[in-house]
Design brief:
The complex is a heterodimer. By secondary structure, chain A is of the alpha+beta class. Chain A is built from twelve helices and 17 strands. Chain A has a five-stranded mixed β-sheet, sandwiched between helices. Chains A and B meet through helix 9, helix 10 and strand 14 of A and helix 2, helix 3, helix 5 and strand 5 of B.
């Protein structure tokens, strides 16, 4: 339901308009002259907009006129798509005018199987012209319907027992609209009578038509119409008269419709309904315009954003490339400088190692020093035949070979003295083979017994670590 | 071709034209964004990486500059120069040294003979330095103070300015005095031999 809408009732030329804003009726307007055609409607709507200052977009029409063609159809059950094709063909068959037909329909309940359809037909040019004139006035028509929907809705509000079938007859501009349906608003069928009970001379005719309708309901739907409710046309004054011509209970509706009732009630009807002559795409024109606007805006925003991002990336690339030449040159220079520094450090390190190896790792002339010391440490009575120092992995290997006096006691003292000096002297020699071992070998081999020998050989081996 | 497309375009309904236009714009935007992100943006990143590399290089160079001490370098160069002075340079200097050794020996009344072995290269870090084994045999006929003369000779040999390492010394003598001394040297030299 639209909250802000211009609701128009055009019932047999009587035009009444309600201005509804945010769900509240703000203004009402009534056309003084009968509106007989679409030109008249255009003039009237222009006047309405001028007078009421309506600023909304939507307009709703509830229309009753003689140009409507109406038929109740009983058809086999079928899909909506197939039903529309069938009804379009049927509309062409039953139309009473030249040119293409527009149709709307309402499904009804049936009691004999199959499906009931209330088909309304009117010239398609009427619908198209109505749409065009609305669009010319910057209005979007959302509804063009007959009174049946309003009456069906009203059926639900009447005090009818649940499950009962009742008739609701409304007097509209000297005509009668009759709807027969259930207490929950389900329509069985409707009828449009060219007479009304408001005219005394037509009461009998109205009663007769209503009786026929009751019988039709009984025959077609096997239901008994319990009550017939009258609405409008000073119904309460004619109820008693009608009862005389009707085989049903005649009651007066608690609602007494004023001239704007139909326009007011039409606002509450759903627009997405098959009984609406206005195509869905026309109803949604405003929404489509908004959606189109939003889509266009979104697409433009997307395009601008993407182009912006791409441009930003290009700017970044340009900046990067402008600095690239400088940075490349600088990188080359830095690499060359780093290489030069590395060469300098390597060369310095090499020189350091070289100097260290040549100067620091120089071995002191220990053999010379030791031999000098040996000259002092060797007792005079001992005579060396060989003094040898050999460099090995651990230091120096020393070998002393010579002769001692033959007197064993004297020699032992002298040799022990030599060994002690070697061990305790400044070079702290480690004796690896003592002079005693030489003597033991001499004893083994019998050198001790040779009488002509004046000296005794010895050998001492030691190490300087 | 253009006319055919133009006719096709004219034939399209208004809402279809809108959809086709929107589709082209959206598709074009997506393609542009993909191309920009996939092919163009990496160029910026590459440049960023290059700059990072340059900054890293710059900091390395700065660190090397800071590590360098000119005073230390001068000292090392001086030490290296001094060390270089202790290395015999080629056969000429070797011959001069041997001549010097012979002169010492003769001055002290010693006889001298030498043999030269095969040179051995030291590590690469020492840049072509070799050690040359030289065996010197010193003899004397004097009995008095021969030992002292040998020691004098030995001292003179090792205390020269050249880098000379003693590997073996043997002094022998028959009777009361030393009459023979053999010395194995390792002489540090560059080139020659």
């Amino acid at each position: 339901m639209r909250k802000t809408i211009l609701s128009v009732s055009l019932l047999y030329g009587e035009m009444k308009v309600l201005v509804v804003e945010r769900g509240i009726v703000r203004k009402q307007w009534e056309c003084a002259d009968p509106v007989k055609d679409l030109d008249g409607l255009r003039r009237a709507l222009t006047e309405v907009l001028r007078v009421t200052g309506f600023s909304g977009r939507y307009v709703s029409f509830v229309v009753e006129d003689t140009f409507f063609v109406h038929q109740f159809l009983q058809i086999p059950a079928m899909k909506t798509k197939d039903l529309k094709v069938f009804l379009a063909r049927k509309a062409d068959q039953i139309k009473t005018f030249e040119g293409p037909a527009a149709f709307a329909y309402r499904r009804t309940c049936t009691r004999k199987g199959g499906e009931g359809v209330l088909l309304d037909v009117l010239p398609k040019t009427y619908v198209d012209e109505l749409i065009r004139l609305c669009q010319d006035l910057r209005l979007t028509p959302v509804r063009l319907t007959r009174l049946t929907g309003i009456l069906a809705r009203h059926l639900r509000e009447l005090p009818i027992r649940k499950g009962d079938v009742a008739g609701l007859a409304a007097e509209v501009a000297g005509k009668t609209v009759l709807v027969v349906g259930t207490s929950d608003g389900e329509v069985l069928f409707d009828r449009y009578l060219g007479c009304s009970w408001a005219e005394d001379q037509e009461i009998e005719r109205v009663g007769r038509e209503m009786t026929r309708s009751v019988l039709f309901a009984k025959q077609q739907f096997t239901v008994a119409v319990g009550d017939i409710w009258l609405m409008g046309g000073r119904a309460e004054q004619h109820t008693e008269q009608l009862r005389q011509h009707l085989d049903a209970v005649v009651k007066t509706s608690p609602v007494h419709p004023d001239g704007f009732y139909w326009a007011r009630a039409a606002v509450k009807l759903p627009v997405r309904d098959a009984s609406n002559f206005i195509p869905v795409e026309i109803q949604q024109a405003v929404l489509q315009q908004v959606m189109t606007g939003v889509t266009v805006a979104a697409v433009i925003a997307l395009v601008i954003s993407v182009v912006g991002v791409a441009a930003a990336v290009e700017v970044l690339i340009q900046r990067a490339q402008s600095g690239s030449q400088t940075s490349s040159t600088q990188t080359v220079l830095l690499e060359a400088e780093k290489e030069a520094w590395n060469r300098r450090f390597v060369e310095l390190d090499r020189q350091k190692q070289f100097a260290h190896a040549v100067v620091e790792e120089w071995e002191p002339p220990l053999p010379g020093w030791f031999l000098g010391y040996l000259g002092d440490a060797l007792p005079d009575e001992l005579v060396l035949s060989k003094a040898s120092l050999v460099r090995d992995d651990h230091g120096w290997a020393v070998q002393l070979v010579g002769n001692a006096p033959r007197a064993m006691t004297q020699s032992a003292v002298l040799l022990q003295s030599l060994e002690d000096r070697l061990k305790d002297g400044p070079y702290h020699l480690t004796i690896t083979r003592s002079w005693r071992e030489t003597w033991r070998e001499q004893l083994k081999h019998g050198h001790e017994g040779e009488k002509d020998v004046v000296t005794r050989g010895f050998a001492v081996e030691a190490g300087i670590r | 071709m253009i006319k055919v497309w133009g006719r096709l375009w004219e034939g399209l309904a208004k809402h279809l034209k809108r959809r086709v236009t929107s589709g082209i714009l959206i598709g074009g935007s997506i393609v542009l964004l993909w191309w920009s992100m996939s092919y163009r943006l990496p160029l910026v990143n590459q440049e960023g990486t290059r700059l990072q590399k340059m900054f890293a290089l710059e900091s390395q160079v700065i660190r090397l500059r800071q590590q360098w001490s000119e005073d230390a370098a001068v000292a090392v160069r001086a030490a290296a120069k001094r060390a270089e002075g202790r290395i015999l340079n080629g056969d000429d200097e070797l011959a001069a040294w041997l001549k010097e050794v012979q002169d010492w020996a003769h001055e002290s009344g010693l006889g001298v003979a030498y043999t030269i072995g095969e040179a051995t290269s030291l590590s690469d870090a020492l840049g072509g330095i070799k050690t040359l084994p030289v065996h010197i045999q010193v003899t004397t006929k004097e009995e008095e103070r021969s030992y002292q003369a040998f020691l004098q000779f030995l001292r003179g040999a090792v205390e020269s300015k050249n880098r000379v390492d003693i590997r073996k010394v043997t002094i022998t003598g028959e009777g009361k005095a030393a009459d023979n001394m053999g010395i194995d040297f390792r002489i540090w030299m560059r080139g020659g031999a």
